[in-house]
Automatic annotation (TrEMBL):
Organism: Pseudomonas putida
Family matches, as InterPro entries: BapA-like_prefix-like (IPR048051), Big_6 (IPR041498), Ig-like_fold (IPR013783)
Protein name: BapA prefix-like domain-containing protein
NCBIfam families: biofilm_BapA_N, Ca_tandemer
Annotated spans, Disordered: 141-163, 294-335
Amino acid sequence: MDNIVIADKQSEVATQSAWGNINLNAPGVVQMPVSPDKVATVTQRGQDLIITLKSGEKVTVGNFFAVDQAGVGSDIVFVGEDGTLWHAQYDAAAFTGFTFEDVASLDELVAGIGTAGSAMPTWAIAGLSLLGVGGAAAAADSGGGGSSGGGSDPDTTAPATPIDLLVSPDGLRLTGRGEAGSTVNIRDAAGNLIGSGTVGADGSFNVTLNPPQINSENLEVTLTDGAGNVSAPGTVTAPDATAPLAPTDLAINEQGTTLTGRAEPGSTVSVRGTGGVVLGTAVAGADGQFSITLQPPQTDGQALEVSAADAAGNTSPAASITAPDVDNPDTSAPDQPTDLALANGVTLTGRGEPGATVQVRDAAGNLIGSGLVNADGTFSLALSPAQANGEALDIRQVDAAGNSSIPLEFTAPDITPPDAVTDILVGPGGTALSGRGEPGATVEVRDADGNVIGSGVVSANGTFLIDLDPAAQQGEQLNLVQTDPSGNASVAVEYDVPLTTAPDSPSNLAIDADGTTLTGSAPAGSRVEVHDANGTLIGSALANADGTFSIELNPAQANGELLDVVAID
């Protein structure tokens, strides 16, 4: 990786620094030897800028957001692979990221460089900007003036929209035509990348889709040329090769004249009796419900089969239901289902009364799965949404006569890891670390060598405070993982301790009786912000010269709410 170039706006001196963390002593222009498209995220931590590349590398620019007495701040420029300089523009008052604008050279951003008395002339800075470290040396050896912008005009023409798009019948491949050599990207309706490839010399492409698209999914296909220009998207609809699920929630009225239930919206539901004779059909509504008139009425305990067929002709497995027997009604409730097991939070298996329907409801009473018990007494049904985080479930079986068993309480196994910890902050001196996590989970902090330097349990309100031993040092990288009581571990978070010292936390906090005003103490001149439990800013103010502050809260907080109060220097 080439060196990082720093041009000081005050002294007009340009210096080079090896790739890695840097610290600005005064406002300047930072030139990063990477293209903007290599950057994954940029974040502000205090006065520091954290740059994370798509490769996973991180660079901290200390004091990047600091301004001098004249209100002058720092700028940063990224170097494209073709030598283009991209000036990253941002809102210093409320940083949310960068927008990029190309510039000819750094002297557009560093006033005075190239004038008499400057440590490095304009042509050297331009050469350094365009070519990196090697370019700077070559420019210095040339002994001449003038910038080295050179080269041909950039390619700014996007490829044409891909055409002749077609998804294979098995949903595994997508073919089409487009600009030769361009990269094909295929995304689903949610924007997920499900396939990519390259257009061949003959203009055709054939891309594998993962997962296969076999249920009328709408797909978007774009082409990106070597200069990074992206075409307008082409669209294609995948084939429907997926059969509907078997109809559920089947019921027949006492007169045997009407059968109701749920099926795939828009599918045609058919009821067949003895010998496969069709007794009635109907189309499931937008909510999946259907009602079928049976002709003739079924009142002698007949075994009926109900199936659904979608518009593409795919037919579901048949669901069974027994018609009422008006002469010998069944009033005996079945036993509770047994031998329950839940795999991956989705597939529930067990044993029950043959022909009965097993129903699963969540803690709110919502039906999240149902299925018929087979003739051998076994059943297998799918839960939607998946239950994989210790949820309490209500499971019962209902026989053909409508008799329901006593509900069985079942707890889904917790196989879901917690989310990564958030809102990490290291206190003054590096002796303590705070943040947010899953209540009851254990947070473990390790240094760059993998040594545990602190751990603690997340409190019921979702916050944690951990003592660090030894203390964390500025610029040190820490690794944080939280593990829930079931042993599921979150994704590790890599946290870089800021190069600048964070102010002391606000203290002496108090809220008045009506919840409209919060008072306290914080470092003089710091901005104090109050956030609710959702992270929403509900009030802020500057600490007075004596360190006191008073903040109006909107909305008022008078019902035991959890608030975060931070000081920003």
